[in-house]
Specification:
Structural class: alpha/beta
Bound molecules: ligand C2E, calcium ion
Number of strands: 16
Number of helices: 27
């Protein structure tokens, strides 16, 4: 198609320029060019979809209409050998072209918006009116007034150049706004320009009565259709951003050029004292209305744009300062508010408090029920927490399962924190399942007389307090105090200091008796590690997990075991001490450490302690039952007479039934079931159940955390074998045990009074 078009163009051009063209060649080459363009556009329409398809189809119809016009013209000229009448049926075909082309340009996809299209239509109308005005005042008006052969012939002859001009304008406008298909559209524009040139030449020559077939003016039509035939082939080649911008600017300015020209022209005419005709006045008025409407449209668009932008900006600002999931403030907004509150403290001495809240057990929900459930849970938690706060407070989600509150009236922050924790106590229902989570909270308060801390300092305080609660493993609230500073050392630092302390043997061991409830004798002394760097006590609840994390737990165990054996050897000689046992806590993970059994046995032997005087207390976990290695270790330890005790029984994972499968000798009922056993029926039932089961499988039961006589009495009544707790003695230094071994049988002693107390 492309090749044949190019060849045709070359041949016909040469023929025309060498003046070798008769009417037959001229007419037929025009017919052929228009037909080629129709076919080419029709093919393009078939290959395309959507608006592009309709665009090419309309252009194909336009070209076909022109082809038909040309066929009629040729029939008059070549077959009937007569002069073509003017106007004739051929003109219908010819004038069908601009109509079709206009439709094509209107539907061509341009990537322009609805508003762009409306503005484009107005621009087109403005330009057309301006041109019409100028044409009217110069030539058209005169032609119409003079009257041609007929009124119709005048209108038709004027229609050609006018419609071509309007098309040209429309084409440039479409191109200037179009982001796609600019190259084929450029070809169409070029084709239309050539068309306009020929039409104008034709109109002029016809008016002069000098037009004949074969005139070079006809070359314009042939070239125009050739270009239109090639237009669908011209694809690709998108323009750069700079070109795009330049075209857009030119496009925006374009409508004003003919407008300015028209208005200055009219102005000049009025200034020269020429009376404007009715048509001129009407067209000018119309033009003014058009300009005003277009301005109005632009202003309104700009306003809409401004409103949309403002809305978008508000959205973005909201997103930047809020948590997408819960709708709470995010870290940025929270820090901003805290900064502001601290500013008020500095200036007006206004107190404030912050609270960090971290969910306990959230990860388990996320892992077990999936992220969607986790997200749902976070939303519900946010709602409950919010329910405990007032409008003036700020609740933020800092990320993950971490929430933060800013209380600016500073009243009772610990109570508020506690009520937030309590609000989480009833289970959440997520996708039909009950889910439980609790939270740990750290509170930091800035009193009016305090120095104003920096934001970071304040946030760190709340964080440290919360971390301390976490490490004690409890859903609780802690108010930050100066003593907590040490916890600021992170686990690694703590691990490093602990390692050094172990090597320098700076840890100590205290002992807490476990008393036989029937004989009231001290049966066992539980060894508990103590660490007090620089005189400050760090709870084993903090350093034991650190020791585990930093692989120091083996060293810690060895140290405590060594010290216990040393003391057992010493106590043996004391009155009442000959049979006393030692209990050492063993972390469950240690059971699978190679060489553990050998180490324990060697240590016992070195100090001459028989295996049956050592109890190892192991917190109940899955490890205890489920791994072959730890099971085997338990069995071997027992072969040496060493007894195994399940520590903190009742809060862990074991059921009573599972105790049967464990190679153990003893359970220590957790303090939470012992405290208030004299009042709470539930606890009593639990203890009774454990006792019954223990009797069945032949193990000993120890009750932990006995603080009151009434508790001891109930336990004794129930038949509990042994008990441990502050009622009998707090953990004490080895030296104090000496006295304890003799005084304890004379129980009851008022809480710990008889012995020197060692700080925990
Ligand atoms: P645990 O083995 O359950 O030890 C009992 C804890 O309860 C001790 O706290 C003890 O001081 C406390 N306690 C005893 N009687 C009462 C009472 O009547 N009322 C109250 N409120 N508390 C009582 P401690 O010494 O702080 O030890 C905490 C935990 O740290 C221990 O719990 C044990 O799990 C761990 N731990 C301590 N020393 C060692 C150790 O040498 N090795 C290992 N692996 N863990 C240790
Ligand atoms: Ca223990
Ligand atoms: Ca315990």
């Amino acid at each position: 198609m492309a090749v044949s078009t190019v060849l045709l163009v070359i041949a016909v051009t040469c023929a025309h320029l060498t003046d070798q063209v008769g009417p037959a060649v001229d007419d037929l080459s025009q017919l052929l060019a228009a037909l080629l363009a129709s076919v080419s556009c029709a093919l393009a329409a078939m290959a395309a979809t959507g608006r592009l398809c309709w665009g090419w189809a309309a252009l194909a119809v336009a070209c076909l209409s022109w082809t038909i016009g040309q066929a009629i013209w040729s029939t008059y000229e070549l077959v009937l050998q007569s002069e073509t009448p003017f106007p004739s049926a051929a003109d219908i075909g010819f004038l069908g072209f601009p109509v079709g082309a206009m439709i094509a340009l209107a539907v061509f996809p341009s990537g322009a918006s609805q508003t762009d299209r409306r503005r484009m239509a107005m621009d087109g109308l403005m330009v057309a009116t301006a041109i019409g005005l100028v044409s009217w005042t110069t030539a058209l008006g005169a032609v119409v007034h003079a009257g041609g052969d007929s009124r119709l012939s005048t209108i038709v002859s004027v229609s050609y150049p006018l419609s071509d001009l309007a098309l040209l304008v429309l084409c440039v406008l479409v191109m200037s706004r179009s982001r796609s298909h600019r190259v084929p559209l450029g070809c169409v524009a070029a084709g239309l320009a050539l068309m306009a040139l020929s039409d104008s030449g034709f109109a002029y020559l016809t008016a002069q009565g000098t037009y004949e077939s074969g005139n070079p003016v006809a070359l314009g039509w042939i070239l125009a259709f050739s270009v239109l035939a090639l237009a669908p082939q011209a694809r690709g080649a998108t323009c750069s951003a700079v070109e795009e911008h330049a075209v857009a600017v030119a496009g925006a300015a374009l409508p004003y050029v003919p407008l300015a020209t028209a208005l200055s022209f009219i102005g000049w005419r009025y200034a020269s004292g020429l009376r404007p005709s009715t048509v001129e006045v009407s067209l000018t008025a119309f033009l003014v209305v058009l300009v005003l409407s277009r301005q109005f449209l632009t202003v309104r668009n700009n306003q809409q744009l401004a409103v949309a932008l403002a809305g978008r900006e508000a959205d973005l600002r909201y997103q930047a300062f809020h948590d997408g999931l819960t709708g709470l403030a995010n870290r940025a907004l929270y820090v901003d508010r805290v900064t502001h509150a601290l500013e008020l403290h500095r200036r007006d001495r206004r107190s404030l408090a912050i609270c960090f809240l971290d969910l306990d057990g959230f990860k388990a929900v996320n892992d077990a029920r999936g992220h969607a459930a986790g997200d749902e849970l976070l939303k519900l938690v946010a709602q409950r927490l919010w329910g405990e706060l007032s409008e003036a407070d700020t609740l933020a989600r800092l990320g993950g399962d971490e929430f933060a509150v800013l209380l600016e009236d500073g009243s009772g922050p610990v109570d508020v924190a506690r009520s937030m924790l309590d609000s989480l106590r009833s289970p959440f229902v997520i996708t039909g399942h009950e889910v439980c989570v609790l939270a740990s909270a750290g509170v930091a308060v800035v009193e009016p007389r305090d120095d104003t801390p920096t934001v970071d300092e304040l946030l760190t305080r709340a964080d440290v307090a919360m971390y301390a609660v976490k490490r004690q493993g409890k859903a609780d609230v802690l108010l930050h105090t100066a003593g907590l500073q040490l916890d600021e050392l992170d686990d690694l630092d703590l691990g490093r200091s602990l390692c050094a302390a172990l090597q320098a043997r700076q840890l100590t061991v205290v002992f807490q008796p476990i008393v036989d409830l029937a004989s009231r004798q001290v049966h066992t002394l539980e060894a508990l590690a103590r660490w007090e760097p620089e005189g400050r006590s760090i709870s084993p609840e903090v350093f034991v997990p650190v020791a585990e994390k930093c692989h120091l737990i083996g060293q810690l165990f060895q140290f405590v075991l060594e010290t216990t054996c040393e003391q057992l050897a010493r106590w043996t000689a004391l009155p009442g001490g000959s049979k006393v046992c030692g209990a050492v806590n063993l972390s469950p993970t240690q059971l699978s450490t190679p060489g553990l059994v050998e180490m324990v046995v060697t240590t016992l032997r070195r100090h001459g302690i028989p295996g049956d005087r050592l109890v190892l207390e192991i917190t109940e976990t899955e490890v205890l039952a489920d791994t072959v290695v730890s099971h085997a270790a338990c069995v071997r330890l027992r072969q040496f007479g060493i007894r195994l005790s399940v520590d903190d029984f009742g809060i862990g994972l074991s059921s009573l039934a599972r105790l049967r499968d464990l190679p153990i000798d003893e359970v220590k009922i957790d303090r939470s079931f012992v405290t208030g056993v004299d009042q709470d029926g539930g606890s009593r039932r639990f203890v009774r159940g454990v006792l019954a089961f223990a009797a069945e499988i032949g193990i000993t039961v120890v009750a932990e955390g006995v603080e009151r006589e009434t508790e001891r009495n109930v336990l004794a009544e129930l038949g509990c074998h042994r008990a441990q707790g502050y009622l009998f003695s707090r953990p004490v230094a080895a030296a104090a045990v000496d006295a304890l071994l003799q005084t304890l049988p004379a129980l009851p002693t008022p809480r710990g009074e008889a012995v020197r107390q060692v700080p925990r």
